[in-house]
C-alpha cells in the first residue's frame, strides 16, 4: 500500500487513492506517515502529524526551561504583588513603554546567576553576573569601586583593574613600572638648578608653572645692544649701517701639485686655496660643497660665490684645461673671451672663478653660469 501527501502547509500522509479503504491504516498514515505504528521517538517519520506534534512539544519544553526571570514592556513599573511568590524575580527585565516613569523598578536587577549559564539557552537570553561585587569577574565595573574624587581606573595586568587614588595639587601623572598600576603622581621638580653663567634665572621653580628669565647682560637676544667677544659667526647676515673695518678670511695652503681632477670642497677649502708645489700636469677643477653635499643643494637661485685657486708653476707650465660643478662639466665665460691654453712658467697663476646659480633645476649645466680669469703673479 502506498501513502501520499495531503498538502504543503502541515504536510502529512493519507492512503493512496488506489489502496483499499481501511480506516485504521488511514489513521496510521495520517499520524505516523506510514501504515505502521511508531514505537520510539527516533523512528518518527518526517513529514507526519507525529513529527509536527513532537516539534511543538519540544518548543514547549524549551519555553518552560527558560530562566524564570522573563520580562515585559509596560507603561508602569512592576511591583512585587504582580508575581507569585510576591517578589520580582532575579533577572526580570522591564522596559518602560512610554518613558514617563522616572524611578527605577523595585528589585529589577536583571540578575539571575553568579556564573555564565550553560543550559536552557534560548535566543535573546541576557546574562548579568548576579553578585556584581568584583570588578575583575564581572562584565562591568560597579560604581562602588570609585571611593573618592579624582580616583582613576588603571590596568594592573591583563583583564585586571585597579584604582589609582588622586595625587596632590600640582602633581602630574607619569608612567612608573614599579607601581601596581604602572602609573604614579609626581612633582614637576625644582627648576632652579641652572648652571652658573648661563644667563638664565628661574623663579617659582617647584611650579606648577615656573618663571624663566634671560639675563641679557650674558645671553644674546634680538633687541638689546650687546658686544660680542670671542664669537665665531657661521654664515652671518649683516644688515644696517655698521662699518666693518677689517675681515680676515681663512685660506687653504697645501704643498700639493696641481694635476688630474681637483675637488675644490667649499666647506673645507674656503674661498682661497694655494697649491705651493709645482703643477705636474694640466688639471680639471671640480667645485662642490664636499663629498656628501652638492653645490646644487648648497646654493639657492640668485646666490653667487667666488673662489681663487692659486697654482705654483715650475719651469714647465701647465694650465686649467677643464671646469666642473658637482662633477658635471661647465664651460665658463672667460675674461677676454678666450679660455687659457697655457700656464706661466716660474710664477703663480691665480684662477678666479665666480659661480652664479641662475635657475632652480636638477640639471647642473642649466643651474649655473661660471665666469673665470687667469692672472700671472711673479
What does this entry look like structurally?
The structure is a single chain. The protein has 378 residues and is mainly beta. The chain has five domains: 3-64, no CATH class; 67-131, no CATH class; 143-186, no CATH class; 188-222, no CATH class; 251-377. The chain contains five helices and 20 strands. The strands form seven sheets. A six-stranded mixed beta sheet has the order 11-13-15-19-20-18. The protein has a four-stranded mixed beta sheet with strand order 12-14-16-17. A two-stranded antiparallel sheet has the order 1-2. It is elongated and about 145 Å long. It starts with a strand and ends with a strand.
For this entry, give a set of tags:
378 residues; mainly beta; 5 domains; six-stranded mixed β-sheet; four-stranded mixed β-sheet; 20 strands; 28% strand; elongated
Summed up, what is this model?
Helices cover 10% and strands 28% of the residues.
From the N-terminal CA to the C-terminal CA, the straight-line distance is 137 Å
Strand order of the largest sheet: 11-13-15-19-20-18
Please tell me the total number of domains: 5
Please tally the helical runs, counting DSSP H or I stretches of 4 or more residues.
5
Total strand count, please?
A: 20
Helix-strand layout with pairing:
Blueprint: E1 3-5, E2 13-15, H1 23-32, H2 49-64, E3 71-74, E4 93-96, E5 152-157, E6 160-164, E7 172-175, E8 183-186, E9 200-203, E10 211-214, E11 251-257, E12 260-265, H3 266-269, E13 272-277, E14 283-288, H4 295-298, E15 304-312, E16 320-325, E17 328-329, E18 333-334, E19 348-357, H5 364-367, E20 368-377
Parallel strand pairs: 3-4, 11-13, 12-14, 13-15, 14-16, 18-20
Antiparallel strand pairs: 1-2, 5-6, 7-8, 9-10, 15-19, 16-17, 19-20
